[in-house]
Write a structure and sequence with these properties.
Layout lengths: L2 H5 L7 H5 L2 H10 L2 E3 L5 E4 L2 H9 L4 E2 L6 H9 L6 H8 L9 H9 L5 H25 L3 E3 H6 L1 H11 L6 H11 L12 H24 L5 H10 L6 H32 L1 H9 L4 H11 L5 E6 L3 E3 L2 E3 L4 E5 H4 L34 H18 L2 E4 L19 E5 L1
Helix pairs in contact: 8-10, 8-18, 10-14, 11-12, 12-14, 14-16, 14-18, 16-18
């Protein structure tokens, strides 16, 4: 072990790491790419090849954290703070289960998020973006919060329409969703467990009521389809309907908020790239792929070993937890030329921002369409964009990365 390797420890909650994790990712990738974290049996992977191999290997690596020794110990230690509700939500969400349950759950909803379906929705997505920016312009101020006025309301509106969630309920989602997504972090501080649990309880109670309404008066929305599947066969249990509804609603907007926020922040910081996009709107597709790679909305995703395995010369044991740092993988020079450079015309851009394997993001086509619509509209609508604060305030999560607020000063 080198001196540099021995001094490295991954702590994503340090303020300087939280503000900019990429220098830490680079050092880990260079000196300790299969990194044993401060928690015994929990490993962090930072190389593209290692992350991709793990994400594609469903035989030896499980998405079900109940196989994890660390998760079992954590759950036992804080059993009183972690209600059955949170465990049940994780156990029945397609994000945290393996085949055949994962296959069964994903099959029931994937038809609503195919590229072909999203293509039919794209004109409406552009209309929503135009309406949001019209309100910004009509207010007549030169600075606005990209997160609060575009990045959050766009995907929230779209996924709520897909699920037929009433408009008057959406402010409550914004209140509770940030606490719920903290359950995705690999390390959860005990003092925030009550907040996470309260958010899980709110979402469960809300969807229990909505599901009962859809049972009495079904529509042609995705949620009604899930209820119908639960009533007409054994393909979905009631708890699976609730867990799937929560996943679709929360995942359906949280990652896209970060895609738009991180993307605009990157373009503001690289005005040459923003000008290239403004001059050639046809670049929006490769631009969004590059923005996803450059500052990934999802930084980490976990797997648990179902048997002993060797990765990068180290032996990991059954029950160990592996955190694939897809954000670090997306800056791996072994896979991407000059990876710390933003290049909206980059080719061969096979990033891992949407994961890989059977858990490749179900909503990727929708997130791409929303990101393309919002980012293109802002670069075209405003001649110039500058950061309106000295220091960006980041969200407290480490699995999801994005600004909490993003004041931008614009000129039309």
């Amino acid at each position: 072990m080198s001196v540099e390797e021995g001094l490295l420890q991954f702590n994503p909650f340090l303020p300087e790491v939280h503000a900019d994790p990429y220098p830490t990712y680079r050092r880990l990738r260079e000196f300790d790419p299969v990194h044993g974290t401060l928690i015994p049996g929990v490993w962090l992977l930072t190389r593209h090849a290692d992350c991709l191999a793990v994400l594609r290997d469903e035989r030896r690596f499980s998405s079900d954290s109940r196989h994890s020794d660390f998760f079992a110990e954590f759950s036992a230690m804080f059993a009183e703070q972690i209600p059955d509700l949170l465990d049940e939500t994780r156990a029945r969400s397609m994000l945290f289960v393996d085949p055949p349950d994962h296959t069964r759950l994903r099959t029931l909803v994937k038809k609503a998020f195919t590229a072909r379906v999203v293509e039919t929705m794209t004109p409406h997505i552009h209309e929503v973006v135009a309406g949001l920016l019209d309100r910004v312009v009509e207010r007549g101020e030169d600075t606005f919060d990209v997160i609060g006025e575009v990045a959050y309301p766009l995907p929230t509106t779209v996924i709520s329409e897909i699920l037929a969630i009433p408009e008057e309920d959406r402010d409550e989602f914004r209140r509770w969703s940030p606490d719920l997504v903290r359950a995705l972090d690999p390390f959860i501080a005990p003092d925030i467990l009550p907040q996470v649990s309260a958010a899980a309880e709110w979402f469960r109670t809300y969807f229990e009521r909505v599901i009962e309404e859809r049972r009495r008066s079904p529509g042609d929305d995705v949620l009604s389809g899930l209820v119908h599947a639960q009533e007409h066969g054994d393909r979905l249990t009631r708890d699976e309907v609730i867990a799937t509804a929560i996943l679709l609603l929360v995942a359906g907007h949280e990652t896209t908020v970060n895609l738009i926020g991180n993307g605009i922040l990157a373009l503001v910081g690289h005005p040459d790239q923003r000008r290239r996009l403004r001059a050639d709107p046809a670049l929006i597709r490769p631009a969004v792929e590059e923005l996803l790679r450059f500052d990934s909305p999802v930084q980490l995703t976990g797997r648990t070993l179902l048997e002993d395995a060797e990765i990068g010369g180290r032996t990991l044991r059954k029950g160990n937890q592996v955190i694939t740092c897809v954000a670090a993988a997306n800056r791996d020079p072994a896979r991407f030329t000059d990876p710390d450079r933003l290049d909206i015309e980059r080719q061969d851009n096979h990033h891992l921002a949407f994961s890989a394997g059977i858990h490749f993001c179900l909503g990727a086509p929708l997130a791409r369409a929303e990101g393309q619509a919002a980012i293109l509209a802002m670069t075209q609508r405003f001649r110039s964009m500058e950061l309106g604060v000295d220091e960006v305030e980041w969200r407290p999560t480490v699995t999801l990365r994005g600004p909490a607020r993003l004041p931008v000063r614009v000129a039309g």
